[in-house]
Amino acid sequence: AVQLAFHLAETSVAAAAHCSLLEYVRSKRERLEASAGSSAESAAASGHRELPLDLVLLAPPGDMLHLLLDNVAPCEASLELWEEREVLVIVSLISIYVARDEHLLAIALYKDQLYPLRSEDPGVLAGLGRLYLTVGHVAAAGCVFAKAEELLDAAGTPADSVPITHINRGYVAVAQGQYAAGALCYQRALDLYVEVEKSHDSGATPWSECAKAAAANNRALCWLYAGHLDKALKSIENIIKAAPARNMNPTLIANLCSLYELAGRSVRANKMALATLVAEHAPDNFDVSVLRLQDG
Description:
By secondary structure, the protein is mostly helical. The chain is built from 14 helices and no strands.
């Protein structure tokens, strides 16, 4: 599948087949263009075929995606499909740059190639704003987040009713050293996540639990920097105990252990209780070293 090809482009160690892949993409476009003259149905059928799974030997990390990006520009026969593929390649490249701490390159790709394709997507703007914060451009991040809120309001969805709005505001507050304000932003986001869960028959979902865990973790860090250690500790404890199977996140567990150590009360007993939860609910590949039981 396309996603597998993108993943392999970053993780492979050989360059032998990248020419073959490009030839495949080019020939695919030629078939699409040819089919456009015959019938819309045949064009759509051709356009929805996926990349072959046998092209698995790809170029060094990032190189293949740049080459692929040049060959997935939308064509008339299947504009929407090819645009989605172009976005997939761009997002994959951005992820690679972020993982390498090459944030300026990620920002350049975001602004020059992703934003023009998704300029009306508040989520894309939120991602760009967070990249700006990573490199210390707080004012630029604030402008981008404000634009995202304007888009939500213009679409008929009040920005204040969307959790991501308050998450973004929390990031800016933290970047400005306003930790109490940041904690309030993350608290508001958590409240909205709970409201959304209550409004759906399915209730909590893996995605909503993950989103709540991230917001609770950020709120805890704000409380910690604001001097409220106990509130920070209880915040993470409660989110883990509320849905342990879904919140066995190594970062969350490691942060809770750090807070136990900072509090200095019953450290060993608290860590052992947490270790029991990990044993019961964490996957087999969970990194138990984050518990730091030897330091308890």
